[in-house]
Amino acid sequence: MTQFSFISHLECPKCNKTYDEKQIQQLCECGSPLLVRYNLEDVKKHVTPEEIQRRSASLWRYHELLPVHNEKDVVTLGEGLTPLEKLDKLGSTYELDNLYIKDEGIIPTGSFKTRGASVGISKAKELGVKQLAMPTNGNAGAAWALYAAKANIKATIVMPLDAPQITRKEVHIAGGDLHLINGLISDAGKVVAQLVQDAGVYDASTLKEPYRIEGKKTMGYEIVEQFGWKVPDVILYPTGGGVGIIGIYKAILEMQALGWIEKDKFPRLVAVQAEGCAPIVDAWKKGEKESKFFEDSTTCAFGINVPKALGDFLVLDSLYKTEGCAIAISEQELLAAQKEVASLEGNFVCPEGAATFAAAKKLREQGWIKQEEHVVCLNTGAGIKYPETVEIEGVNTLQPGDSLLTSKR
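RE: above sequence
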């Protein structure tokens, strides 16, 4: 029987202590998130990029490099292999000859959080978890509640009162144990931490379990596969907790070690934040290894309203190692980009995704991105989940019998 996963162990990126992946693990004893390691030499012997391309269109096509041992424990809704599309009209406007969108808005649950939920819930199921808890700005909680329902795991979800309405409804209809807090995700995190301490519930908070990264890293595998196993020049990623950018960097390192891509050829990773919540940007500008808590944070791009990320040191390390950067975008810029992407290309992107396009435009104007470079913007969710970001103006109201040719606008 073919081995499904080649997972080896868990490892702390700070103190290098290792842990057994067959037992429930949360953070390292030093307080750092844990990373999953694989027997890459064995993977190399058992699977090739050509074989992967013949598999079904799901993120589980990379199962040798995912942490679940038994295929029967996989919890899936068919997520993965989202479109990578070239945007010619928008690219012409931005003076970018090779501008692409990686569109996570069409994935089950409507956001890229699905990737982390599928892999994280699958591993939790394999480990025998019966109840999990997590704070969320909306989309992650929605995804984990829906996948937990499929896995028969109780999901306790705490989100800010201002979280998008649709994400609350996703948790509720999935039978999740939903709680709203009059505060930020950091406040929700304190409530979850107390429940974990008092009741021993599995902590599914961002990076407090090792497996969400593994789901998110599949974006990196897919982008490279969709470019014919070549690495683009720039990948722009909307950064709150930063799990996706950490995962993409991890995927690149794994593919290099496997010999699937050119050694030492990295995409320049760009962490995109909102001006109203830009702790990673502030730290990057100062060349620091960790960020400071961003006071009074606010942005309509709710998913990146994270004042202090647990894995900030991993995000910053990925920027430094790939010669990338961090950039903050204003509310006006991201909303203008959201409209521009939809009106020119037909993609209704979420505000977080729109921020990456605004960043690409700005970095091209500054000369940091060259015209001929291959540039990928990550749209992390469906725009229809954020209807409040779009105001309808100047629409003509007709009366029965009116003609569109004679009515006044």
